[in-house]
Amino acid sequence: MEIGHKIVYLDSVDSTNNYVANLVKLNQIEHGTAIMADLQTAGKGQRGSVWLAESGENILLSIFLKPDNLSVSHQAFLTYFASVSLLTILRKIGISASIKWPNDIYVGNKKIAGILIENSIKAQQINYSILGIGLNVNQLNFEGLNATSIQQEMGQFFQRNEVVFMLFNEMNKNWSLLNVQAPTLKEKFTSNLFQLNELKTYQSKEKRFDGVIRGVNEDGLLLMEVAGELKTFDLKEITFIL
Ligand code: BTN
Asked: Ligand 1 within 6 A of 104 CB?
């Protein structure tokens, strides 16, 4: 079954990710089904944050995915899959974006898309994944947030449906790469990392320090060169200073 073979459109929902989770409980969803909403009343971001989006302007999307034989230790490939697919369609639209580790999509210093992946694990395998994507399409006013949209970058209105079908198409091309954990997927992710190979300042729990992002390790953790030494960081251990 292809990604996007079935699309459910909702006017308003608490969170499209929650909506998928409910369908899973009811056993009423299959691989590739997508849920889209005009508005979320409790949109979820990473690390318990909220995802705000003006009604009807942006893509608020969740996809139910059942990877073949993806072990927990390779779960970062879901992140690579989603970010690389987003990056590719943005490039086709004419926007050069990068991936702020672990999975925010940035244009310059502004966020254009966020990804929230919620996995269910069974016997050390990804049983299923709820891939949530918020992609700013036509919103122009972000009220002080460090964000942008496709329209803001390109100076013209975009049909959300056209963008979403481009995304499904790209994901269907990349799906087989995810299932074999193809190195090319990881390489594309790594080579498009925000601030890759640049000396920048970061914040850890204890201090500010200068470092150079060099890529990600086998587990998808950030690899950074600090004072000539290669270190790994997980999500809670590092903040970007923009
Ligand atoms: C982040 O950058 O913090 C992740 C944002 C993810 C937002 C999307 S919008 C559609 C889906 N439903 C949610 O509740 N969240 C994701």
From this structure: yes
The tokens describing 122, both together, are 């069974």
Residue with the smallest CA separation from ligand 1 atom 2 is 114
Please name the residue that has the structure tokens 């190195």.
Answer: 183
- What's the order of all strands across the beta sheet hosting 110-122? 7-13, 34-40, 59-65, 125-135, 110-122, 104-107, 98-100
Contact 134, 147 (CB under 8 A): no
Name the residue with the closest Cα to ligand 1, atom 16: 132
User: Which candidate, 147, 241, 162, places its Cα nearest to that of 202?
Assistant: 241
Structure tokens at 187: 């390489």
Instruction: Centre a 10 Å sphere on the Cβ of residue 142 and count the other Cβ atoms it contains.
Output: 17
List CB contacts of 77: < 8 A, sequence separation 6 or more. Answer: 70, 178, 181, 185, 186
pTM: 0.96
pLDDT, mean of each 10-residue run, the chain (242 residues): 97 98 97 98 90 94 96 97 98 98 96 98 97 98 94 98 98 97 96 98 94 96 97 93 89
Which residues have CB under 8 Å from 119's CB, separation 6+?
75, 78, 126, 127, 128, 129, 130
The Cβ-side half-sphere exposure at 13, using a 13 Å CA radius, reads 20
Q: For tokens 């390489």, what's the residue?
A: 187
Report whether residue 61 contacts ligand 1, using a CB cutoff of 6 Å: yes
Contact (Cβ atoms closer than 8 angstroms) between residue 144 and residue 180: no
Query: What is the CB neighbour count within 10 angstroms for residue 31?
Result: 17
Question: What are 98's two structure tokens?
Answer: 């990068």
